[in-house]
Amino acid sequence: MSSLPNATAQARLMGKTQRQANGCLLFTGYIAPNGYGRLWDGERAGQAHRVSYRIHKGPIPEGLFVCHTCDNPPCVEPSHLFTATQAGNLSDMRAKGRESRGPDHSEAIRNGWTPELRKQRGDFTRQRMEDERNAAADAAGVPRDWKYCPACSEWKPRPDYYRNAARYDGLKPYCKPCSSEKDRPQRKEYHAENREKLNAQSLEYYYANRDRILAKRRAS
What's the confidence (pLDDT) of residue 95? Predict the structure, then answer.
């Protein structure tokens, strides 16, 4: 059995939390895709609510899960945490109607993340990623506004990347040549499946702009 989290881990946990009106103590650090926070406990990275349980309530009995009375995965409030077997955890989930992750998912989870907290977490994540990128650029000896392409293993300036507003830096992860190469199979498949529609669109565009197209051809 591993040792309990040390004082540093306790301070790190409490420094990344925010109290909610419903009593939940939400973890504001890194949140994994499954909705649970992740935190270094002094020995290894673990789920934040499990770290909180070990800090405030002691070791987790072997084979037991740490569950939430509030049904809110990022919550680390000790009074909201309890241990149960896998069967007990599933029974609790069904009793509370949490089997679906659709519109009927737990009201506590839907309401727990306020717009302000979501923005705070997003700003923190973007800043962390920016700091990591700057540190990597400094180590590589390239300007900080350059971006590393993992496909060709080269640092390149921003104009060498396609834009992607959904990403923190506004750019696609791969440079233009690598991105085009990776997208080639998808483009071929799309064109093969939509050939008639694309041909019809091309003809429609041609007839709508025929005079301009012919004039440009004659000029060239």
Answer: 58
Domain stops at, among 64, 98, 113: 113
Q: Are residues 42 and 101 in the same domain?
A: yes
Q: Domains in the chain: how many in total?
A: 2
Question: 153: domain range?
Answer: 143-220
pLDDT in tens, 66-93: 888 887 888 999 999 988 876 655 565 5
In a domain, 138, yes or no: no
Other Cβ atoms closer than 10 A to 102: 6
Domain CATH for 61: 3.90.75
> What sign has the CA pseudo-torsion 205, 207, 212, 216?
positive
In a domain, residue 135? The reply is no
The torsion angles phi and psi of 89, rounded to 5 degrees, stand at: -65, -45
Q: Report residue 111's pLDDT band, with 50, 70 and 90 as the boundaries.
A: low
Rounded to an integer, the average pLDDT of 41-52 is 84
**H helices present in the chain, as ranges:** 7-14, 48-57, 86-95, 107-112, 115-140, 176-193, 195-208, 210-219
